[in-house]
Amino acid sequence: MIRIKKCLGQMLFIVGLVLVFIYLKYIWNLAMEAKEHLFFYTIQEQQVFNEDEDIYEVYYYDLLKKMFFSLEDAIDYGKTLKRSYIKRMGEEAWLWDNYLPFIVYKDQRYMKDFEDYISALEYAKRHENTTIVLNSLEFPIWHREKEKQKQSVVQLDVPLIQQRPELARGCEVTALTMLLQYKGIDADKLTLAKEIKKDPTPYEKKDGKIYFGNPYEGFVGNIYTYNEPGYGVYNGPIQELLQSYTEKTINLTGAELEDVLYFISEEIPVWVITNTRHKVLPATEFQTWHTPSGPIQVTRRQHAAIITGYDEKYIYINDPLLSYPNHQIEKKVFEQMWKQMGSQAVTYIP
Predict the structure, then answer these.
(1) Using CA atoms, how far apart are residues 54 and 274, in angstroms rounded to an integer?
(2) CA-to-CA distance for 124 and 111, rounded, in angstroms?
(3) Tens digit of each residue's pLDDT (9 = 90 or more) over 237-257
(4) CA angle at residue 198 from 193 to 203, to 5 degrees?
(5) pLDDT confidence of 48, banded at 50, 70, 90?
(6) Nearest alpha-carbon partner for 199 in 209, 211, 185, 207
(7) Contact partners, residue 100, CB within 8 Å, separation at least 6
C-alpha cells in the first residue's frame, strides 16, 4: 500500500510539472504575441512607416494572432492555422481565409463551418439565434429569426421568357435567363445555350438499352431541335453557368421546400427542376439510361422553371413553355413533383 501511494505521489508530481510547463508555455506565447502587437501599434503611432502602407491582420477564429506588412507573408502564416482569415487593418472585408464556405454563427460567435449549404442549414436549425454566412460576406444568407418570421404571401415580378421557337429543349437556360434578368444582369437565352456545359456522349440504343449523356455532367443532346436526340441539364452545370455571371451563388438541391421559399421571402427567385405535366409522374414515365458515369433514371417530361412566389395554398412559377407568368400549382403537388425530380434548386445571393 505504501509503495502504491508513493508511486501515485510520483505520478501526480510529474503530471503537475507537465501542467506547469504547458501553462508557462501558453503564457510565454501570449507574451510574445502581445509584444508583437505592441510593436505594430507603436510604430503606427510614431508613423515610422509610410502612411499609405497596408498592414494585414491574421485572425484565428476571431482572435487577432499576428500582423504583417505583406499579404503574402500573412497568407503563409494563415495557412499554418485552421479557421483563420486575413483583413486589411481598418477594414472588415476578408482578403483570404481557409474556412469551409458556409459558416454557422450563434449570437455572432463562430460555431461550425461546412462544405455545403444543406449541411450548414441542418446544423443551424438545431440551435437558436443562429445565422449562416457565406465566407466573407458581411451579411447572413440565412437567419434563424427571419426563418421563423417568413412572409406568408410573396409574389415577385420576374420577367417571363419563352424558350420557343429558338430552343426546343432550352427550358433550363431560359429559366436561368429569367433569374439573371431579374437580378439586373444583361443575359439572353441563346448566349446561355451556347455557354452551358455540354455532355458530348452520343445517343445509342443497343440490346434494348439506351446509352446517352448525364445531365448532372452537362447538357445532353441537341438543345435547338427535336430532329436530333436530346434531353436537358441539371443543377450542377446550371450553377456553374450562373456563377460565371454572378460570383455569389448557392445550390439548394436537397433542401426542403420551405427552405427554398425562405429565399423567395427574401425577394430572390429560385431556379428549379420540375416536369411539363405539373404533377407527380407515374413510374411508367421514367426510363433508365446508361451513361459514362453509371445508370440514371430520367423522364422525357423533365422541365425547368422559376419560382416567383407563394401563398398558403399555391406555388407560383414562370414556365418557359407558357405564355403567361406566375402559373399556380398547389403547394403539396409542387413539393411532390419537385422532390420526384431530385429537389433540384439553384439561385444567387445578393
Answers:
(1) 51
(2) 9
(3) 999 999 999 989 999 999 999
(4) 115
(5) very low
(6) 211
(7) 113, 114, 115
Residue 137's nearest CA partner among 104, 105, 93 is 93
User: DSSP assignment of 73-105, as one string?
Assistant: HHHHHHTTSSSEEEEETT--SEEEE-S-SEEEE
Region 296-306 average pLDDT: 97
How many angstroms separate the CA atoms of 81 and 216, rounded? 35
Place of cell 436526340: 229
CB 154 within 8 A of CB 143: no
Count CB-CB contacts under 10 A for residue 162.
Answer: 16
> How does DSSP classify residue 139?
S
252: closest CA among 120, 156, 83, 92?
Answer: 120
Distance (Å, whole) CA 214 – CA 219:
8
CA angle 237, 197, 230 (to 5 degrees): 100
If one counts every other C-beta atom within 10 angstroms of the C-beta of residue 226, the result is 10
Side-chain-facing half-sphere of 250: CA atoms under 13 Å: 28
pLDDT tens digit sequence for 136-193: 666 789 999 888 888 899 999 999 999 999 999 999 999 999 999 999 999 999 999 9
Domains and CATH numbers, the chain: 2-97 (no CATH), 102-148 (no CATH), 154-348 (3.90.70.10)
What pLDDT sits at residue 227?
A: 95
Tell whether the model's pLDDT for residue 47 goes beyond 70. no
Residue 114: all three cell numbers together: 461546412
Give how far Cα 153 sits from Cα of 139, 143, 332, 334, Å. Answer: 24, 19, 16, 16
